[in-house]
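Lab manual, section 2.4: Encoding a predicted structure.

Procedure: take the sequence of the chain (135 residues), apply the prediction step described in section 2.3, and record the output as structure tokens. A sample record is shown.
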Amino acid sequence: MKILIADDELQNRKLMRDFLKPLGQCDMASDGKAALDLFVADLEDGDPYDIVFLDIMMPVMDGQKALSKMRAAEKRLAPEARETAIIMVTGMDSSMQAMQAYFKGGCTDYLTKPVTRQSLLDKLQTLGLIEIEED
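Recorded output:
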């Protein structure tokens, strides 16, 4: 699985990467513009991300604007391809922004911070991106 993690807080990026690296390649970006650049470059190369985690509140370009531009790039560069799963990641105080991104911006779903390993795996399983084996 190919994963992009965008968050302006280094600790948040590292935590998500540590949770996700057993599942595949993890790229990281510290702002929405850098995430968008990585997303578009990989889309142009024909090797798109399977899932993107976007923090809503970031410098340079916030998560909502990056989401909108990512969806536009998908329509322009890969109109026949399956839409990339894009999960907005938000603090409790910005859950309304996450809902707006969900309904208006076309995000696939959202997670509320603090993100735990289990909440992350549950979300990936719900989206059909992983299967969790039962004991």
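Check your result against the sample. The mean pLDDT is 86.
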